[in-house]
Amino acid sequence: MRAQFVLSEIGVGLRRNLTMTFAVIISVALSLALFGGALLMREQVSVMKDFWYDKVNVSIFMCNKGDAETTDKCEKGPVTADQRKTIEGDLKKMDIVDDVYHETADEAYKHYREQYGETPIAGMITPDQMQESFRVKLKDPEKYKVVATAFEGRDGVQSVADQRNILENLFNLMQGMNVAALGVMALMLVIALMLIVNTVRVSAFSRRRETGIMRLVGASSFYIQMPFIMEAAFAGLIGGVVACVLLLAGRYFLIDGGLALADKMQLVNFIGWDAVLAVLPLVLVIGLLMPAVAASVALRKYLKV
């Protein structure tokens, strides 16, 4: 097969169907950008989970005077010194516990004032209304239920709370956004495939005289189909390159420049450029192969001479 002939046929096909080729490029670019964005979103959720789950604590809140009147769990009154000592000792004996920190009611009140001192409700809270607690750092945050089972219902314990529950809502939201992005990506992918098939069909129809002559002089089906397949692959590759540019620009705009989330949300561990660069080859490969395969399948039906 002469490469010069194939390349010239590709150029002819792209010029004849310029508008549809442009539509294919845009559709492929958007679908692959959404695909890459979904992969990066999943990586971001994984990074944030690893970062935050390693820092969350299990909080064991003790009964205070007010709890004795409002909850059955503290009907025996506020926690005593012996109960507090026993709970702390049992916590330190557990193999899954990495560290235990005791926060008194006064310390809890001080921290509360530091966070909410400017709000109207802050003036209504007094130190005796605050709960002392044990903040427990686990070696494996997934074993929260072991601590909850061991201490919930004990005398002097008002409740056991896992801070992971606060983060789960955020992670579930991000996962939902990820699923939505994948759904839109699938829709765009279907549209791109339909455009590719239609473009190949129109291109094959417009060149039916040439392909008929090539068939009569003994050209193989592969030789006849190759220019059409390479046209689709070339358009898909351009779309993949555009998708890569969108992903790089999106990462820069959202995290480093523009919105500058890295500066505004310093407690969040964002994905680095290495994660983005790792996705780009996959995007390019899919952008190249997907249109080529679609074109090959379409030609079996529409390229009949």
Automatic annotation (TrEMBL):
Q: Transmembrane ranges?
A: 21-41, 179-200, 232-255, 275-299
Q: Does the keyword Transmembrane apply?
A: yes
Q: Where in the cell is it found?
A: Cell membrane
Q: Which residues form the ABC3 transporter permease C-terminal domain?
A: 184-302
Report the domain of life of the source organism: Bacteria
Cellular component, GO annotation: plasma membrane
The record's section on Pfam families has:
FtsX, FtsX_ECD
- Tell me the keywords, alphabetical order: Cell cycle, Cell division, Cell membrane, Membrane, Transmembrane, Transmembrane helix
Q: Which residues form the FtsX extracellular domain?
A: 56-160
- Can you cite a GO biological process for this protein? cell division
What is the membrane topology listed in the Swiss-Prot or TrEMBL record?
A: Multi-pass membrane protein
Protein task: Part of the ABC transporter FtsEX involved in cellular division.
Family assignment from sequence similarity: Belongs to the ABC-4 integral membrane protein family. FtsX subfamily.
What binding partners and quaternary form does the record give? Forms a membrane-associated complex with FtsE.
Task: Cite the NCBIfam families for this sequence.
Answer: FtsX_actino
Designated name of the protein: Cell division protein FtsX
What is the taxonomic lineage of the source species?
Bacteria, Bacillati, Actinomycetota, Actinomycetes, Kitasatosporales
